[in-house]
Design brief:
Number of strands of chain A: 5
Shape of chain B: globular
Number of domains of chain B: 1
Strand content of chain A: under 5%
Oligomer: heterodimer
Number of helices of chain A: 26
Shape of chain A: globular
Strand content of chain B: under 5%
Helix content of chain B: over 70%
Structural class of chain A: mainly alpha
Strand order of the largest sheet of chain A: 1-2
Largest sheet of chain A: 2 strands, antiparallel
Largest sheet of chain B: none
Number of helices of chain B: 12
């Protein structure tokens, strides 16, 4: 038991050491040693998690003198979250050796190393925390380190704005969490999680604070507003960390606290509805993007939505006493946490490789990169298929558990049966995600290059290729043989509900489904081999190579290819959702048309339309107020006096 | 002996019967247009001819262009393993397999679309954009249908859903709604009139056909065979629901099932002869209509 926590502690220490080492020495060797230290930390974390899964009893340790009795604890749920944190941390370090070489970038690379290490260590500590104070300290370490990571390239205005918005958002979240824990700790007077268990404060404020605190961090719609800018502006391995891991800490917090508290039925419905909204709107906004990293960022909103749908289902299952729903919803959600960490980090790594090679994230300037970057293209394809939920990859495995959960709900009593309708929303999200990634992959990697940068692209460096290949292999392995992760998922699902006397989740249903998936994947591969054999046997006749047939048009150019905008146009027009798109078109319809231009841009409805406008209005109001204040000193003193008197009067009435 | 014969008949029906349905549709259309039409076995002859030919490849294309037809066919073959045929459960049948079936068709579509984009032709990009638009809008309707069937049958393996749903008490009205919605979705997913016109000669108006414009020879054979199998998957779902419950002899059930799929093919031929293609902007309304119908069906059984 000490060994389990000792290994986890060693992982946290190695992550911090990696950061300090990489910051202290401006040498390529130090960067490599820092990456190795992070890798060793990941090995320790995996060992600790493995021991936690195997033992079934949580490992706990209390430090009496620290923060009024700081408690660390590692159970199945936190152990499962440790896996992506340290795996992605180590792979991002490895990727950084090629993508962010200290020999070229000097101070920037050193700062990145430091805050990368701090962020990973903070998240490790967050997962180990078993009392609110340690939790908040770790939470803040993670939040501030992520802010510094977004701002690593601090000379870019885009990064400055994104980092500021992120800082504001994350502090609103922290403030909400302070309020939440203060409310929760009031009855017992203790901040330890164990003493919170089973309390039922029953205040609607609690749900609001919990939703705000963890919803902002997780990036659930409409609290996602900080996310697209931060992910797009940060360097790609930082985006991978933010999207793959940091968002998941919001999910972890939600799971941890909802496992401790009695939850009314309304919580399940709220989380389910929030999840469905995030998933649908996230994917629709992703479709409207032309910037590869913004597109991926909106897909994070979508995937967090899918995860929240599972969490909502589990909460409903607990309220209505359906153990199978808890197991399927929670199992699917937690599995999707793991899967999203693998494929989204992979896709951001791929985006980084593309940006590195071409200097552009604009989809409509790329094209034909599959020829020049074959390894990146293949890895990105695996990630794209996985995030679209296509078999035999891992995205399908976790979504299948959720579908089964919704199916099970649909057969239940009438109240809960309506939760099953969410399956149709999930289906629509799946279809739209596949459309969006067909667009992204097709426009970036297929066809002809749309510009000189894309035509002269180069393949990513060896360490970048290696970290992408590892993640792609993980996507395939988890999809083809999901039984590999069955024990870990079971342990995490069973560790969730910590209320006294809670019934255990019925694990049989997800377990069987994971077994069947292990049959579908290999069968699909076998079918592909068969079809390939038919194709090979048939194609004996000569096969000449010519230009693409232009339907008789003699002078096609690469610019006539479908772009990301034109690909998504029909779909976006068909959807009734509120996408604010600004289109500027200068096309003449004259018989001899002059040069024309067309541009379109999709704004974020919350940040650009809502919050930015509100902030401007607030600023204007404040300016008005200041003008009113300026005229004379006497008037100001009078106002002060009046306020003072009225405050005194108010006080004296009690 | 008899189980082996039935299994062989099942396999033959799933693998060899589908091109005949295409021949049947063509024949019906030709007859209604006053022509004699090609023989029923013409699709088989086309496949054999294509398999013997060489392919012409574009300089723009990469390995994905060649992988597209192979993966597309493989995914549909895998879906056939899940599909119940003539009251016999699919060889691969497990709770939740209906999701796998829909997503396998999604795999086929994803790779066909990528192969189309690989040519760099704006026509194929256009077809690909239309394909993903209409298929993703068809998805909720399809799932409403399947969810309603699962609720009626109280189980989530496709074979159970198809065989038990019609027998559940009070299923009649919901079943009609689901059947109609499935037929509309089948027309949309298989690029038939009123969504797409497989016989058109103008690239600008096509969806599926324009996506595979640059494929030829064996590649086109794999695509055409895959398309026939996909049509069969959808018709088999509807035919399975319409199979008379009183018929217990497994052999007779297979025969009745084959006849029902043929009747559905004739119905598609009739629809194609009697209707015009919808304008592209109106197709989403048709698909939303199908989703609403099947959604009503689901709510009927949820009461």
């Amino acid at each position: 038991m000490e060994l389990t926590l000792g290994l986890a502690g060693a992982a946290v220490a190695l992550a911090s050491a990696s950061g300090l080492l990489g910051f202290a020495f401006e040498r390529p060797a130090a960067q490599r040693i820092a990456a190795a230290s992070m890798g060793t930390g990941a090995a320790c974390a995996f060992a600790a998690a493995g021991r936690a899964f195997a033992s079934g009893v949580p490992a706990t340790m209390t430090f009496a003198g620290w923060l009024g009795g700081a408690t660390l604890r590692l159970d199945g749920l936190s152990a499962l979250f440790l896996l992506p944190v340290f795996a992605i941390g180590a792979l991002a370090s490895l990727y950084g050796v090629g993508y962010y070489p200290v020999a070229e970038l000097r101070g920037k690379a050193r700062r990145w190393q430091l805050f990368h290490g701090v962020a990973i260590a903070g998240m490790g500590l967050l997962l180990l925390a078993d009392d609110a104070l340690v939790f908040l300290v770790a939470w803040e370490a993670m939040a501030l380190a992520s802010f510094a990571l977004v701002l690593v390239e601090d000379e870019r205005a885009e990064a400055q704005r994104a980092a500021f918005v992120y800082l504001a958002a994350t502090h609103v979240a922290t403030l909400a969490l302070f309020g939440l824990f203060a409310l929760l700790a009031r009855p017992s007077g203790s901040f330890s999680f164990a003493s919170l268990a089973g309390e039922l404060p029953g205040s609607p404020w609690l749900l609001a604070l919990l939703g705000l605190g963890f919803g902002v961090k997780a990036g659930a719609m409409p609290l996602h507003f900080w996310l697209p800018d931060a992910h797009a502006a940060a360097p790609s391995h930082v985006s991978a960390l933010l999207s793959g891991v940091v968002l998941k800490m919001g999910v972890y917090g939600l799971l941890r606290l909802s496992g401790l508290l009695e939850t009314p039925a309304s919580w399940g419905w709220v989380v389910l509805a929030a999840g469905a909204t995030s998933a649908l709107l996230g994917v629709v906004f992703a479709l409207a993007q032309h910037d590869l990293k913004r597109l991926l960022a909106y897909h994070s909103v979508e995937n967090i939505g899918i995860i929240l749908m599972g969490v909502g289902l589990a909460l409903l299952g607990r309220t209505y006493g359906e153990g199978a729903l808890v197991a399927l919803g929670l199992g699917g959600a937690i599995f999707h946490v793991l899967n999203h960490a693998t494929f989204k980090s992979l896709l951001f790594f791929g985006a980084g490789a593309v940006q590195h090679a071409t200097g552009s994230r604009q989809l409509d300037r790329l094209g034909g990169l599959a020829r020049r970057m074959p390894v990146t293209a293949l890895c990105f394809l695996v990630g794209a298929a996985a995030i679209s939920g296509l078999p035999p990859l891992n995205g399908f495995a976790s979504e299948l558990l959720l579908y089964l959960g919704f199916g099970r709900a649909l057969l239940g009593r009438s109240a809960i049966a309506f939760a099953g309708l969410a399956a149709a929303a999930l289906a629509l999200v799946g279809g739209l995600a596949a459309a969006c990634f067909a667009k992204a992959f097709g426009v970036i990697f297929l066809g002809s290059p749309r510009g000189p940068a894309a035509a002269e692209a180069h393949e990513a460096k060896a360490t970048m290729r290696l970290s992408m290949a590892i993640l792609a292999a993980a996507c395939a392995l988890l999809g083809l043989f999901p039984s590999l992760i069955r024990g870990a998922l079971r342990s995490a699902v069973l560790a969730w509900d910590r209320r006294p006397g809670a019934p255990p989740a019925a694990w049989a249903a997800p377990s069987a489904a994971l077994g069947w998936l292990g049959v579908v994947g290999p069968l699909l591969l076998a079918a592909a081999l068969l079809a390939w054999a038919i194709r090979r046997a048939a194609g004996r006749a000569p096969s000449p190579t010519v230009a693409t047939w232009g339907c008789g048009y003699p002078a096609p150019t690469p610019r006539m290819q479908y772009t990301s905008s034109s690909f998504a146009d029909l779909l976006l027009r068909a959807l009734p959702w509120p996408i604010v798109r600004h289109e500027r078109s200068e096309l003449s319809a004259a018989p001899f048309p002059a040069r024309g231009s067309f541009s379109s841009h999709a704004e974020d409805p919350v940040l650009d339309v809502g919050l930015a406008a509100a902030a401007h209005a607030f600023g204007a109001g404040a300016r008005q107020l200041r003008r009113a204040q300026r005229p004379s000193l006497h008037a100001n003193v009078l106002v002060l006096l009046l306020v003072l008197v009225s405050l005194l009067a108010w006080r004296l009435r009690w | 002996m008899i189980p082996v014969a039935l299994a062989l008949a099942h396999a033959a029906l799933a693998l060899l019967w589908p091109p005949l349905l295409l021949g049947l549709i063509g024949r019906v259309k030709a007859r209604l247009a006053g022509r004699v039409g090609p023989p029923l076995v013409q699709p088989y002859r086309d496949l054999r001819k294509l398999l013997q030919k060489g392919s012409v490849y574009s300089r723009t294309t990469s390995w994905l262009f060649r992988a597209g037809p192979v993966v597309g066919l493989a995914a549909v073959l895998c879906a056939l393993l899940i599909l119940p045929v003539g009251g016999r459960p699919g060889p691969l049948s497990f709770p939740g397999d209906f999701v796998a079936l829909v997503y396998l068709l999604g795999v086929a579509r994803f790779f066909t679309v990528l192969a189309a984009l690989d040519t760099g032709s704006s026509f194929e990009g256009m077809g690909a954009a239309r394909e993903v638009t209409f298929s993703s809008l068809a998805e909720p309707g399809l799932f409403f249908c399947l969810l309603a069937l699962g609720r009626m049958a109280s189980g989530w393996s496709l074979s159970r859903m198809i065989s038990l749903a019609p027998a559940s008490p009070g299923a009649g009205p919901a079943l009609v709604l689901v059947g109609v919605a499935l037929l509309v979705i089948a027309l949309a997913e298989n690029a038939r009139i009123p969504v797409d016109d497989p016989a058109t000669h103008l690239e600008l108006t096509m969806i599926h056909e324009v996506m595979v414009l640059d494929h030829g020879g064996p590649d086109l054979a794999l695509i055409s065979y895959g398309a026939a199998l996909k049509l069969f998957v959808f018709l088999a779902l509807i035919a399975g629901l319409a199979l008379p419950p009183g018929l217990v002899d497994p052999g007779l059930r297979l025969v009745a099932f084959a006849a029902l799929t043929a009747a559905l093919a004739v119905a598609i031929g009739l629809v194609e002869s009697l209707m015009a293609r919808l304008r592209l902007v109106n197709v989403p309304q048709l698909l939303v209509g199908a989703a609403v119908l099947s959604g009503f069906g689901l709510i009927l059984v949820l009461r």
